[in-house]
Amino acid sequence: MDKKEVLRKITDVSNYLYEKGLVPGKSGNVSFRFVANGSENVAITPSGVSLKDVDEKNIVIVDMDGNKLNESLENDKKASSEVFMHINVYKKNDEVNGIVHTHSPVATGFAFAEEKIKRLEGFGTIKNPFIPFVEYATPGTMELAENVSKALENEDVVLLKRHGIVACGENLDDAFLLAEFVEETAKIQLVSSLLSRGQTQAHLKRSI
Ligand SMILES: [Zn+2]
Question: For the residues 76-90, what does the mean pLDDT come to?
Answer without folding.
Answer: 97
